[in-house]
Amino acid sequence: MISVTGVTKRFGDYVALDDVSLEVPDGSLTALLGPSGSGKSTLLRIIGGLESPDLGRVTIHGEDQTSVPPQRRGIGFVFQHYAAFKHMTVRDNVAFGLTVRKRPRAEVAAKVDELLEIVGLAGYQQRYPSQLSGGQRQRMALARALAVEPKVLLLDEPFGALDAKVRADLREWLRKLHDEVHVTTLLVTHDQEEAMSIADQIAVMDHSRIEQVGSPRELYDEPATPFVMRFLGPVTRLGEALVRPHDIALSHDAQPGSHEAQVARVVHLGFEVRAELELGDGEEVAVQLPRNEADELELGVGDIVHVRSTALPRALDGGPTEREPEADALSA
Amino acid sequence: MTVDRRWRIGLRVLGLGYLALLLLVPVGLIFYRTFEHGLTGVWESITTPAAIHAFWLTIEVTAIAVPLNTLFGIVMAMALARGEWRGKGLVNALIDLPFAVSPVVIGLSLILVYGIDGWLGGALADAGIQVIFSVPGIVLATIFVSLPFVVREVTPVLKEIGDEQEQAAATLGAGGWTTFRRVTLPSIRWGVAYGVVLSVARCIGEFGAVSVVSGKISGETETLTLLVEKRFANFDLAGAYAASALLALIALGTLLAMTMIKPRREEGDA
Predict the structure, then answer these.
(1) Could you tell me which residues are beta bridge partners of residue A55?
(2) A75 and B147 in contact (C-beta within 8 Å)?
(3) Quick check: B167 and A72 CB within 8 A?
(4) Among A11, B173, B232, B234, which is most buried by a count of CB atoms within 10 Å?
(5) Which of A50, A87, A100 sits opposite B172 (nearest CB)?
(6) Is the CB of B181 inside 8 Å of chain A's CB atoms?
(7) Chain A within 8 Å of B170 (Cβ-Cβ)?
(8) CA distances from A89 to A84, A114, A144 (A)
(9) Taken in order A118, A120, A124, A128, is the CA torsion positive or negative?
């Protein structure tokens, strides 16, 4: 388990991390999710020993690592831009950590071949990083990090420099790899879809603090703050509340708590139908509904319908469902 | 279009003519004058005891100055590119001092420090070490004038490659020295090589500062450039040309080494 307690980090006047605490359970794949500048990479680099915190503690498997240099933390680190050793072959890149540890030559060769097999680069031993695609370079970097059998694997936007298709493939692949290798993994990303699709646990960061920690489902269904709600999925405003567009029910008749609205636009996206409605006060509401429901309602532009939220509404300012972010960061 | 073409040809002629008048013709004439009366005379004048001594002294000084400058250059480049420390800007500016200050002034300033009446020279003389009018002075002057080359070649390369590879090496368990030897140094090797070639060329060709501190004692503190100057001043033109040709040949050799390095450098081994 990785445990971060009360970590604060300043760069000059800028506070990059403000009293952050986080626990990453053993064997989990946890995502640190947040917009750029939220402090997520700094937190990862502090856990990896590449930065040192001004305040607070980092422990890995119960051992205090706060002032241990990265060489002796037992971590594997993968960088956004691969950090491949350009003058070395793929084999030498992956073998680096093992040769530093002066392992026997035969053991190194066997381990390298095994890892290249796992990451799908068997047969690429003699290539140089410049002869690999971005996705291949990142898989090589991952093999290199795994070669030293790290206690924890830290990934800093590992797919951030890749194009969308490769990104999606690699993230599926990483999830499968994690299910096989089971090394405790912390992954930094700004892509909520990436975090939702591969992580067991997500810690959402904003403005140098952790907003909420939970499973993807918990965060989606029970966001602690309007920020988390907005960051994890589409939201629309219904009256004073923030609602997911698919948590809005449409009917022809007035229902308790429903608002009258006029259909402004209907977009058919195969299974899903998106409608834009205009409330009496001129506010716009976006609604997502399955195709069969839309067909039953026979939605047409200009129709008058009644909308109501089917989810527990979350008040934008205060209200019973909004909790203090601090309370949540620790309660995961 | 024809106007365009005329312009282009005109500019080429101008550019090449400029180079020819300033560089190719003078250097070419040296070789012509050297060899116009055959090889025998040339051989005799570059194999006199004074010439041979001057040749080996030049090599010796270069062989001391270049490795020291290389070591200093790499360490300083690392400090400038990777470190954050007080006074970095000042040191960065100071490194260019040898380029900015005339070599003659450098020579004179060395005499002020290491001369017999100088700031350190008295104490050194008491310890039996003579710096000025002796080989150590020549070495000092040569180091001084060729100091910036390696730093200036390596610093931008270090900045360009960034420190992510070094961080990756650290997370893989490599200590500072291992990281430097196995990751940093191979990444900057062409920058270092280029700096070394430039340093060698400068060390062999240095005249001004060495002239001031050497005392020009034939067979003792006379380098090749000083020999050329002395022969020229003594109206031994053939001898001066021969020694010049030798210097020019060494310089051409280093240039050749440089062009052999350059293409590899542009490949970038990225």
Answers:
(1) A8
(2) no
(3) no
(4) B173
(5) A100
(6) no
(7) yes
(8) 10, 16, 12
(9) negative
Query: Tokens representing A43?
Result: 């937190």
Report whether A140 contacts A121 (CB < 8 A): yes
Query: Where are the domains positioned within chain B?
Result: 1-36, 38-267
Q: pLDDT tens across B120-155, in order?
A: 888 888 888 888 999 999 999 999 999 999 999 999
Tokens 């062409």, residue?
Answer: B190
Q: Tell me the chain B residues in contact with residue A81 when contact means C-beta distances shorter than 8 Å.
A: 164
C-beta separation of A240 from A316 below 8 A: yes
pLDDT in tens, B25-63: 988 998 898 888 888 888 998 999 999 999 999 999 999
Q: Residues in chain B with pLDDT < 50?
A: 265-270
Cβ contacts of A295 within 8 Å, gap of 6 or more = none
Instruction: Check pLDDT > 50 for residue A154.
Output: yes
The DSSP result for A259-291, as a single string, is EEEEEEEEEEETTEEEEEEEETTS-EEEEEEEH
Q: CB count, 10 Å around CB of A19?
A: 16
Query: Whose CA is closest to B206, among B152, B118, B147?
Result: B147
Candidates B82, B172, B187, B192, partner chain A, best to mutate (most A CBs within 10 A):
B172
Q: Decide: residue B266, CB within 10 A, 0-12 exposed, 13-18 middle, 19+ buried.
A: exposed
- A275 phi and psi, to 5 degrees? -125, 140
